[in-house]
Amino acid sequence: MTIFCARDDIFPALPPQVDIVRLPSLFEATGDEATTMDWVPTPQTLHCAPLGWPGIRRAMAVLAGWFDSADPALMICDVSAEIAQLSRICSVPHVKVLQHGDRGDAGHRAAYEGAAGLLAPFHADLAQPDWDAALRARTCFAGGLGVDVRVPEREVARQRIGIGADEEMILVLSGGGGDGFAQAPIGVGARARPAARWITIGKVQRDWHATEPANVEHRGWVDDAADHIAAADLVIASTGNTTCQQILASGRPWLAVPEWRYFDEQHRKADALAAAGVATVRPHLPSSAHGWIAALADTLRDHRPDRQRAMIDDTPADRAALWLEALADRLWTPLAATPSLSLEPRIL
């Protein structure tokens, strides 16, 4: 197995048969890019294909060379529609990771329609309503895939992060994909529920006008997010994939607030979570005390922990691996020979 990634320092220990190949970033400029060709329009079949970027050329050359030398059975493409299409152009079957969002554009359609199959790292009940039966039939849904969804015991988690057994704790969690929640509305919420201990982990946007009360504590980046989630009485978080899987596995009351992402990914994910009854959704953090009181009350009233936990498969990695192996076998196993039709008359 070979993994291609712009970073090689984000992986845990991997088996010896796994190689990691670092590619130049397809999105981050280095200063070597030409700046004279941005007037040339991008075709609708592509999303990010600026002209004059040597890093992109090198990345595509590495991939094309590996396709030729390794003769892979299957390529799994995460977010890049361009690499999915490159795989197809190079005559390599690919599986495209299916994401939420408004992805009916020509680029996504080409990546999906050209794929041998689709892999969704979430439960089938979180599928978007605009995904038709044909697309779903080609998709392996694996809730919890790629995330450690083991849930610590609540009492043990509270001891580890310094929360009293009888304290009400509200966790505000921001993942690494965006800028985090703003400080001011968190302060408004904390003042609206002063008996609770409000703890934030991840990024927080600082506001000069935030009149933050004493029951708010900002812990920044932590290595024990799972403990914080398990310890919480209520979680306020955006709807990134890892965040979703961890909260659903924990079965905690969840006020989901989507952040900006390309193709409205988090907004469509939030819609799916609300439709499945596994989160209370607001389009943004409440801006007033009465807004916070209503949002928190709705979150606690509508909480369905069993339904949340049902979104996580027992063995999502095994499910995905078996599906991928079966797909590769189907792709590369010759069809059984069929007898040729003869034009000679037969004796009946």
UniProtKB/TrEMBL annotation:
Pfam families per UniProt: Glyco_tran_28_C (PF04101)
Record-linked Gene3D superfamilies: Glycogen Phosphorylase B
Residue ranges annotated for the Glycosyl transferase family 28 C-terminal domain, each copy included: 212-283
Lineage: superkingdom: Eukaryota
Family annotation (InterPro entries): Glyco_trans_28_C
Entry GO MF terms: hexosyltransferase activity
Protein's UniProt name: Glycosyl transferase family 28 C-terminal domain-containing protein
Natural source organism: Diploscapter pachys
